[in-house]
Automatic annotation (TrEMBL):
Species assigned in the record: Hansschlegelia quercus
Entry keywords, A to Z: Phosphoprotein
Every Response regulatory domain range: 8-125
Keyword rRNA processing recorded: no
Stated name of the protein: Response regulator
Annotated positions of the 4-aspartylphosphate modification: D58
InterPro entries for the chain: CheY-like_superfamily, Sig_transdc_resp-reg_receiver, ST_Response_Regulator
Keyword Phosphoprotein listed: yes
A single BP term in Gene Ontology: phosphorelay signal transduction system
One family name in Pfam for this protein: Response_reg
């Protein structure tokens, strides 16, 4: 199965430079329909307005963190099936376990490149 690069993707990070980096990496892979949110609550609002094929969210944000966003998404019947990739600068085992328990589909540790991002996305979709 080929990766559907036409699906809308929501990237969530409170650091505008990171949003730009992830957007550029997605573009290299072939994704064009990319929206941004600067924290979990803004992301949740956007997800309730538009159906996303994938969410890529940073872990450390204020006021709503990535893990809180993930829990909200998994607890919302309309959103719970949305594929979700968590991005973090920390590779602590307990964080990976916490994210897995919360229902994350995949996990990326910064820094990463387009090839790593593509591999992680493909593994989520079984491509």
């Amino acid at each position: 199965m080929a990766l559907n690069t036409a699906m809308p993707v929501l990237i969530v990070d409170d650091y505008s430079t990171m949003l730009r980096i992830i957007r550029n990496l997605l573009k290299q892979i072939g994704f064009e329909d990319v929206d941004e949110a600067s924290d979990g609550s803004q992301a949740l609002g956007k997800m309730r307005e538009k159906s996303y094929g994938l969410v890529i969210s940073d872990w450390n944000m204020e006021p709503m963190t990535g893990i809180e966003l993930l829990r909200e998404v998994r607890g919302d019947e309309a959103l719970q099936r949305t594929p979700f990739i968590m991005v973090t600068a920390e590779s602590k085992t307990e964080n990976v376990i916490l994210a897995k328990k919360a229902g994350v589909n995949n996990y990326i540790v910064k820094p990463f490149n387009a090839a790593t991002l593509k591999t992680k996305i493909e593994s989520v979709f079984g491509a």
